[in-house]
Amino acid sequence: MILLVLGSNALLATAFGNVAIINTELDGQNASVNVIGVPFGKDWNGLNNELNNYTATQMNNVDSNTSTLKEGLKKIAKKHGFDDVTITVSSQFGENQMPMEVVVDGVSMVPTLQNGEHVIIQKTKTSKVGDIIVVKDPEKTLLIKRLGNISGDQIFLSSDNNDTVHTVVNGVEVDMIAIEKWTNASNIIGVAKIFNV
């Protein structure tokens, strides 16, 4: 009978070397990642930097959600030698909820929202009439509007400020009115939750 004795470090590396637990904390402005795993033979700093950068980028990506975030984190962990990966995503909105910060551009939501105001949204497609939502718009990058009506898969975006605004654009005085229109509900990015950040 042969008895093989491994040092505790070698035993840990053998038993748990491919297991990682990745915990992410998001608040819309900051993202932090904590990795629990055995770093033997792995580029631990590279892994942590890559996970943190990816998480921050995805938090601010209008097309990402917790599922796409988790998929990307698993791919990064696998690239660094972790095959058995468990991921948690937490935010001020709860488990598996992703926040994102947006900046109000314009005066169409005055007096509720001011131009330049920072707002934290909860990325979700679920909203109800009266919510302030952020949507992707083909003509603009993002719109922040009140959900005025729902008809099937269409939603009506309304403005809180219906006054005509007199302003100067490229040296020419113009009258501007708020955008109000119908769009597909699939364009919803999220619901505004925290204001004047």
Automatic annotation (TrEMBL):
Highest taxon of source: Archaea
Protein's GO biological process: signal peptide processing
Leading EC class: hydrolase
Keyword annotations of the record: Hydrolase, Protease
GO cellular component, one term: membrane
Keyword Cell wall biogenesis/degradation: no
Name this polypeptide is given: LexA repressor
Organism (species): Candidatus Methanobinarius endosymbioticus
